[in-house]
Amino acid sequence: MVPKLTLTPPHEAENQIELSLRQSFESLQPSLKPPFSLTIPNPDEYAHLNRAILHAILTEPQFAKIHVKHLHALVTDGYAFFTNLLLKIVHHLYPKLTGSVKNQLLWITDEVVRVSAIGYDALLVFLMRQIVGGDFSDGNLWLCTKLLTLLLDKWDCLLEEAPHVLCSALYVFLRVLADHCRLNVEKLESLKRLEVHFCVKIVREEFHLCLKIGRDFIRLLQDLVHVPEFKSIWKDLMLNPSRFNTLGFEGVSQIYCTRTSSRYALLRITPEMETQLRFLLTHVKLGHQKRHFMWFARKFLSEIDKETVIVDIVRFICCAHHPPNEIIQSDVVPRWAVIGWLLTSCRRKNYVEANVKLALFYDWLFFDERVDNIMNIEPAILLMVHSVPKYVDMTNTLLEFLLLLVDNYDMERKDIIVKGVSSAFRLLVSKGVIHSLDVLTSCPALSPPLKERLSRLLSCGKLGSSKGFMPALSGEYIASSAHISRPLSYKFNCITRSARETNGVISAKVMYQTILPSYNTNFPNHGLS
C-alpha cells in the first residue's frame, strides 16, 4: 500500500497533484533504489522520475537521503521542475498534508535552498503564506519555528541571492509576533524569542530591507513597541535615524511616503482564503452574499483568536484585490460591502476593530496620487457614503476615526498626514469615485462637529483640536454612552504622542485603545443580506 500525502475523507476525490505523484511512484518504485540508471531520460521520463522521487522523499523519510542523491544525479534543469512540484503541493495541499509529510516537506525545502534550486525563493514565500494568523495550534507554531530556523541558518545565502525573501519574512513575522505577544503562554515563549531575534536582526543589521517594505513596516512595528527590543528601535526611528547606518535614510517620513507593494498584503492571507475572497468579490451577486459570508466566517473566523486576521483581510481587499471596471459596474458584491461586514464581525471591539480601521485608512494618511493607487482608498469612501442614511452610525464611526488619525497619529508630521488625507478626498471626487463630498459635509444625520472638522480639512488643510477631547488621566480609554452626534465628551489618549513628549516611544496600548465608541448599529450584514 502506497502511503498517502494527505488526510482526506473517504467521499472526497483524490487531488490530481497527489494522484500524479502517486502514479509515478508506483510505476517507477523499483527504479528508485541503487544502483541508479545512467541513461539520460527524455523530457517525459524526466518529469515522471521527478514526481516519483518527490513522492518517495515525502513518504519514505528513512530513505530520503538516498532519494535526494538520486535527484542530484539526474537533475538537468537547475531543479526547476522539482521545485515547481513543491510549489504546487504547498499552494494546493499543505493544510491537508499528514504530519510526517509536512516534516519531510520542510526537510526537502532546506535541501532545495542549500543547492540554490531555481524557484526556492518562491517556495519559501509560499510556505510563509501557510502560517495562519491568530492560530495557536501546535502545527502552526511548528511551521513558524521551522521557517525561522531555516531562514536564520541560510541567512548569508538569502541575503546575497534572495533578499526579497527576508523582506517578506520580516513582514510576516512582525505581524505574527504581534499576535503571539498578546498571549502569555509558556509554549509560545521560545518561539517569541526566536521571532524577536530574527526581526531585530534584520532591522538592526539590514535596515535597507525594511525600507523596501514601505509604510506598512511602520504599521506593523508600532504594534510591537511594548516589546523592549522594538521600543529601542522605535526610539531610534523617531529621534536618531542615523543609528541604522543606511545611506539615504533621513527619517520616518521617508517610510511614510513609500507605498507598500500589494505582494506584501498577500503574505498574510492563506491561498485558500485568497481563493474564497476573490470568488466572493468576482462572482457573488449583491443580495446573495449572506450565506457566503456565513460560510467564510465559519471557515476562517470561528475562533475568537483568529479575528486578528480580519486586519489582514481588509488590507488584502484594499491593496491586492482591484477589480476591473466590468466587475465594479456589475451587481457583484462590492469591496466596501465586504469590509463593512468584516467590521461588524469584530467581537473584540477594542484592539481588533481599531486595527481594522487603521488598515482601511492607512494609505489615506500618506496618499500621493503620483505613487499611490486610488483603488487602495476607494473602499473606505464608498463604505462611508453608502452607509448614509440607513447605517449612518457606520459613517460617523469611520469618519471620526479618520479625523482622529489626522489629528493624532503622528503630531510631529501632521502636515504630511493632512496633505495625504485632503489629497485623497480631492482625487476621489475628481476621478468620479463619488460625485461630491456633500453627502458627508451636508448630511443632517452626521455629527455636526465631525462635519465642521471635515470641512475645515477640505477647505484649508488643517484640523482644529476638538473641545470634546481631553487627555485621559488614567491612561485608559473611557467612552461615554452619548450618541456620536452629541459633543464628543469621552476621555482619550492620543493615537500617538509626539516623539519629544514620549522620548521617541509610542505606546501600543495607547495607540490601539484610542478607538471610537462601539454602537449597537444592528448592522450584521451591512444591509446586503
UniProtKB/TrEMBL annotation:
InterPro entries: INTS3, INTS3_N. Pfam families: Ints3_N. It comes from the Eukaryota. GO terms for cellular component: cytoplasm. Residues 45-454 form the Integrator complex subunit 3 N-terminal domain. This is Integrator complex subunit 3 isoform X1. It comes from Cicer arietinum. The lineage of its organism: Eukaryota, Viridiplantae, Streptophyta, Embryophyta, Tracheophyta.
